[in-house]
Design goal:
Blueprint (H helix, E strand, L loop, with lengths): L15 H15 L7 H16 L3 H24 L2 H4 L1 H27 L5
Length: 119
């Protein structure tokens, strides 16, 4: 009888959970428009919690990137909100531009994180 060969199973990656969390947070930020921003608020709180315990500079940078993206987006939305009073079209255009910028930042950060690069 021949000896049966078993595949070598690599040890679990201790960073896998942290990596999955960051991917999940980028996902929540990216699809925040579906929930009128609720997903972004949830992700923001988690970003703050995870960043406070993080020591890896890559992860700290990406958490900070998502946090600053959220706050800058909120700043621009509040600043541009009076345009809705003028007429619907300027407000819609302004909010669309801000929304596209937010989406760009989320996708850009997500792609850079997947390549283990700083945002």
């Amino acid at each position: 009888m021949s000896q049966q060969q078993y595949p070598v199973v690599p040890a679990s990656d201790p960073m896998a959970g942290k990596r999955t969390a960051v991917y999940g947070l980028y996902f929540l930020h990216t699809v925040a428009w579906v929930s009128a921003g609720t997903f972004a608020l949830i992700a923001l709180v988690i970003n703050y919690v995870l960043r406070s315990d993080e020591t890896d500079p890559l992860y700290v940078a990406h958490h900070s990137y998502m946090i600053s993206t959220f706050w800058w987006t909120l700043f621009w939305l509040v600043l541009l909100s009076p345009l809705w009073l003028v007429f619907i079209v300027p407000g819609a255009i302004a909010y669309t531009v801000v929304g596209l910028w937010y989406l760009y930042r989320c996708i850009r950060g997500w792609l850079r994180f997947s390549r283990a690069r700083l945002p």
